[in-house]
UniProtKB/TrEMBL annotation:
Domain of life (superkingdom): Bacteria
Name assigned to this protein: 2-dehydropantoate 2-reductase
GO term, biological process aspect, one: pantothenate biosynthetic process
Domain Ketopantoate reductase N-terminal: 3-152
Cellular component, GO annotation: cytoplasm
Similarity comment: family membership: Belongs to the ketopantoate reductase family.
Record-linked Gene3D superfamilies: N-(1-d-carboxylethyl)-l-norvaline Dehydrogenase, domain 2, NAD(P)-binding Rossmann-like Domain
Record flagged with keyword Lyase: no
Molecular-function GO term, any one: 2-dehydropantoate 2-reductase activity
């Protein structure tokens, strides 16, 4: 299968690397020193599940250099989707499948604003991974998993085909009954912990051990559930409990990827997380004071991070 992985960071590097290791024709879009290293020496993946090294079919920063893909995996950040979607437009074929793996609740919606709806699946992933040094991605913890499906949850042939490919590559995957609900369940967790994590700048175990901050997380999550309900997403109190079971079971020192970006002064997914809840809460008439507080407190830092990259 002709596969294009756009964005060879923690997520794209690990999952794209596994597909290349399994023998697929994998082209990789990267840039800067990371691209140079991949071009020279291949992509190295250090993983708790076993290290490996792959030579992509092509590593480039220019999508026009790659053949029309059967499958495109998006490994970029959620806020990069609009610019990347525009770039991908000319190379998408009639049957190209696009699989987003980003955190965030509206990645599919952002993609269909630019690219044909029929080409796009909905998805998400679980892993803790990052670029350790140029040319090398480190999978540090978490059982890697891709959850995906058709936006209307149809059990299509193409979904089955991707499942087979992932199975063969040894990538755990699941096609759920309701992909939107799975996206929102993950979003409920990640949005609850990332903003507060960015504000407090301490790992989840330190946040949950403070009565005040624990309460703040609960209120953040409750607001997200109210916004979901207003959008007819069936998130309930049961999911709140499930999320807090996950929060309470995280090992000491755990931080989420967006929290790490905020703490490191990098552009983050704030706008797509608490910012999205603020935007949708205001639009739908749902009270979201805690998410607004988190968002407004972090916004100046986010603006500074983005300015520093201009
Ligand atoms: N990492 C993790 O553990 C997890 C992350 N996620 C989610 O997955 C998504 C991806 O995260 P993650 O892998 O951490 O992100 P990374 O920042 O590690 O990777 C994104 C990569 O895409 C590259 N990129 C972006 N735009 C371009 C471009 N125009 N041309 C070439 N390269 C480009 C970036 O390069 P540059 O740095 O130069 O911008 C970067 O190397 C996010 O939505 C995140 O929330 C989900 C589960 C776990
Ligand atoms: C919580 C986790 C590690 C799960 O994959 C994640 O999605 C992230 O850090 O962005």
């Amino acid at each position: 299968m002709e596969i294009l992985v756009y964005g060879i960071g923690g997520v794209g590097g690990y999952f794209g690397g596994k597909l290349a290791e399994a023998g697929h024709e994998v082209s990789m879009i990267a840039r800067g020193e990371h691209l140079k290293e991949i071009q020279k020496h291949g992509l190295e993946v250090e993983s708790i599940k076993g290290n490996f090294k792959v030579k992509p079919k092509k590593a480039t920063s220019d999508v026009s250099e790659v053949p029309t893909p059967d499958l495109i995996i998006l490994g970029i950040k959620s806020w990069q989707i609009p610019e990347v979607a525009k770039e991908l437009e000319p190379i998408i074929g009639e049957n190209t499948i696009i699989l987003p793996l980003q955190n965030g609740a509206d990645n599919y919606e952002k993609l269909i604003q630019i690219l044909p709806e029929k080409n796009i699946l909905a998805g998400l992933c679980f892993i803790v991974s990052f670029i350790e040094v140029p040319g090398k991605v480190k999978h540090a913890s978490y059982e890697p998993k891709i959850v995906f499906g058709e936006a209307d949850n149809l059990q299509s042939q193409r979904v089955k085909k991707i499942q087979d490919i992932l199975d063969e590559a040894g990538v755990e995957n699941n096609v759920p009954e309701n992909i939107q609900l799975e996206i929102w369940k993950k979003f409920l967790f990640i949005c609850t912990v990332s903003g507060i994590g960015g504000l407090t700048r301490v790992p989840i175990d330190r946040i949950r051990s403070s009565e005040y901050l624990h309460e703040m997380m609960i209120n953040t999550a409750k607001e997200i559930i109210e916004v979901a309900k207003a959008k007819n997403i069936p998130l309930t109190e049961k999911h709140l409990e499930m999320v807090f079971e996950i929060i309470n079971s995280q090992p000491e020192g755990t931080t989420a990827s967006t929290q790490r970006d905020i703490m490191n002064g990098k552009p983050s997914e704030l706008e797509n997380f608490n910012g999205y809840i603020v935007k949708e809460g205001d639009r739908l008439g749902v009270e979201i004071p805690v998410n607004r507080y988190i968002y407004e407190c972090l916004k100046p830092m986010e603006e500074a991070a983005r300015k520093s990259r201009e």
